[in-house]
Specification:
The chain is mainly alpha-helical. The chain contains five helices and no strands. It is elongated, with a radius of gyration of 21 Å.
């Protein structure tokens, strides 16, 4: 019991640390390429993550983008309707695809 108390006390010290001054988090903008479906994609994807996540996927196939969109819908409940799936997939493939 004594060792547990010492352990918990030792690792709780960082919780009481204070920083003098102001902390500023840098803002990084990830501009999207213009194209058909840009606004629909921006509205649906940027609700949960920055567009940098999409850019970091690299140039991918249409199948890849479709699977990624379906994963976002099924796993993370992305607000992409059945009608918007094709538009988002086509936008991503045309602007960030391998073709």
């Amino acid at each position: 019991m004594r060792y547990l108390l010492v352990f918990l006390l030792w690792f709780s010290f960082p919780l009481f640390g204070q920083i003098e001054g102001k902390i500023q988090v840098p803002y990084i903008e990830f501009p999207m390429k213009e194209g058909k479906g840009e606004y629909s994609t921006k509205g649906k994807c940027n609700m949960c993550h920055s567009f940098g996540y999409i850019i970091n996927q690299g140039k991918q196939s249409k199948v890849f983008w479709r699977k990624k969109i379906m994963k976002m819908i099924e796993t993370f409940s992305a607000p992409i309707t059945d009608e918007d799936i094709e538009e988002v997939v086509n936008y991503l493939y045309e602007n960030y695809g391998e073709g």
